[in-house]
Specification:
Blueprint: E1 6-11, H1 20-25, E2 29-35, H2 39-49, E3 53-55, H3 58-61, E4 69-72, H4 76-88, E5 92-95, H5 103-116, E6 120-122, H6 130-140, E7 147-155, H7 175-184, E8 189-197, H8 202-208, E9 214-221, E10 227-233, E11 242-249, E12 252-255, E13 264-268, E14 271-275, H9 304-308, H10 316-328, H11 337-355, E15 361-362
Parallel strand pairs: 1-2, 1-4, 2-3, 4-5, 5-6, 7-10
Antiparallel strand pairs: 7-11, 8-9, 8-15, 9-10, 11-12, 12-13, 13-14
Bound molecules: nicotinamide-adenine-dinucleotide.
């Protein structure tokens, strides 16, 4: 890879702080600036990681002419407006999931990325976990055979998380379950039928008008004879955290473990086998390989989302490397802007379907 170094800023320093040392060590980036509203926390993190440029205003940050790219990790409702503003300011954008919460905002992101001719990548951890990379390898070596069906699931109890989570429609945060299914077949969702099930307490319902404890959807993949299923719950549904994908091929099936940290299962026809998933750090520049197995905090200070997701399967350095490499190599990232917004819209349209009693809802085709 070239010697070019991109100036990167991270916006939002909860989960976002996880990425600071990765950018500090990637051979093609300068960890240029950090941004969040509260000055005290900004300075605390800035001092801890020795990042010199600090902004309490996102609007001031994106005016900086030396800044090449922003990585947005702010609360959900800010993802789309901040992404659009940064693209309009001529910056490449990486943004944590979901890309947006409305179809209109998804379209605005596509329009802004195309007008600016800058990369936009949704930083979907679920498609760079070691489990996903293992299934991808089964696909690429022909061991899966023809992919016949996929099933994603993401169940989590979000009581007590920051206020914007409370009562969030489960499918508005569906990308961790949707994306691995679509990434594996390099596809986009075409339409969806989703049912809401169960009921959460009234004070949670009030915020977003979403009553369901669980939302369960079937999606059709555009231009492929394939469907996949996704289940999501966020409140009052008793289960250990799970963020999983199962894949059924004509030769081999892969099923995620039901209990965290146990082995996943590969079925060769009728014969199941428990498998130890290898790490894929060798796919990365050597300077950031260590971040697949180690969070950037010590155990006492680890971010809950990192601990619960099993460190997100070692995905963080892969995400950084893909975002940075795509800019340097002047190619679309994976996912690119169209895939990012389709994988997000899948959940938005699924919730719409659930609110309409399970009616089929078509997804917009943003490529047209
Ligand atoms: N596996 C994953 O992909 C994964 C895991 C965890 C979180 N996330 C995403 O990351 C985002 C952040 O999660 P979190 O748990 O750190 O949230 P959080 O609410 O704890 O932190 C949000 C951060 O954004 C900052 N912020 C808020 N408004 C801002 C503004 N206007 N300008 C600049 N900064 C602002 C806050 O100061 C804070 O540092 C969430 O939206 C979530 O979707 C993704």
């Amino acid at each position: 890879m070239s010697q070019k170094k991109l100036n990167i800023a991270i916006v939002g320093l909860g989960f976002g702080a996880e990425f600071i040392p990765i950018y500090q060590n990637h051979p093609n980036t300068n960890m240029y600036a950090i941004c969040q509203r509260t000055k005290e926390k900004l300075d605390q993190i800035g001092d801890q990681y020795k990042v010199g440029k600090r902004f309490t205003s996102f609007e001031d940050l994106i005016k900086d002419p030396d800044l090449d790219a922003v990585h947005i990790n702010s609360p959900i409702h800010l993802h789309a407006p901040q992404s659009v503003a940064a693209l309009k300011a001529g910056k490449h954008v990486a943004c944590t999931v979901p890309a947006a919460t409305t179809v209109e905002d998804c379209r605005a992101i596509v329009n802004a990325a195309n007008a600016a001719k800058k990369n936009y990548m949704m930083m979907e951890t679920a498609i760079y976990t070691r489990e996903f990379l293992y299934v991808r390898e089964l696909r690429d070596t022909g061991q899966l055979g023809r992919i016949q069906f996929m099933r994603g699931s993401h169940q989590q109890e979000m009581a007590g998380w920051p206020g914007y989570w409370e009562g969030l429609p489960p499918m508005h945060y569906a990308t961790h379950a949707v994306s691995p299914c679509l990434a594996l077949v390099r596809g986009e969702a075409e339409h969806v039928a989703c049912f809401g099930s169960g009921r959460i307490e009234d004070k949670l319902i009030a915020k977003y008008g979403s009553p369901f404890a669980v939302e369960s959807a079937l999606f059709k993949v555009r231009n492929q004879q394939l469907a996949f299923e996704v289940t999501r719950s966020l409140f009052e549904t008793a289960r250990q955290y799970i963020e999983s994908v199962d894949v059924y091929g004509s030769k081999t099936a892969f099923e995620w473990t039901l209990i965290e940290n146990e082995q996943c299962i590969v079925h060769h026809g009728e014969t199941p086998e428990k498998v130890t998933i290898p790490d894929y750090a060798h796919l990365l520049p050597k300077e950031i390989q260590r971040f697949t197995t180690k969070g950037v905090y010590d155990e006492e200070h680890a971010h809950l989302s990192f601990t619960q997701g099993g460190g997100h399967g070692g995905s963080h350095p892969h995400l950084v490397n893909e975002f940075v490499s795509s800019i340097i190599e002047r190619r679309p990232s994976f996912p690119d802007v169209y895939q990012s917004v389709n994988w997000t819209c899948a959940g938005i349209c699924a919730h719409e379907s659930a609110m309409q009693g399970g009616q089929i809802v078509p997804l917009p085709d943003f490529r047209r």
